[in-house]
Amino acid sequence: MWRAVSLFEDGGLVILGHDLGPGVERIFGCREYEFERRLSAADVSSLRRLLSVAPDGDLLAAIGERFESSRDLEAFAEEHRIPGEFWNRIGD
Fold it and tell me: Whole-model pTM?
């Protein structure tokens, strides 16, 4: 299992994930799953406000301190109506 959270120069943010192996196979019937959730710059501004991070503050550090997993971050964003755009792929 691999996860990454990155900021873009335009102010957007992406949450990436890639899972391989028997755990994926038990859930999906194949051995690979990957996903991407993108938040726009406006969505990131909302996230900063909710996390009390200044516009020039270190958002990635705040995310790392606040959330145990990327799923926790995604759930927080969804709970606060910041859904972003979601893409995934299931299959080998």
Answer: 0.85
Q: At what angle do helices 41-50 and 59-66 cross, to 10 degrees?
A: 60
What are the pLDDT tens digits along the chain (92 aa)? 999 999 999 999 999 999 999 999 999 999 999 999 999 999 999 999 999 999 999 999 999 999 999 999 999 999 999 989 999 999 97
Question: For residue 84, what are the contacts with CB-CB under 8 A and spacing of at least 6?
Answer: 37, 38, 39, 40, 43, 77
Between CA 8 and CA 40 the distance in angstroms is 9
Q: Domain locations in the chain?
A: 2-90
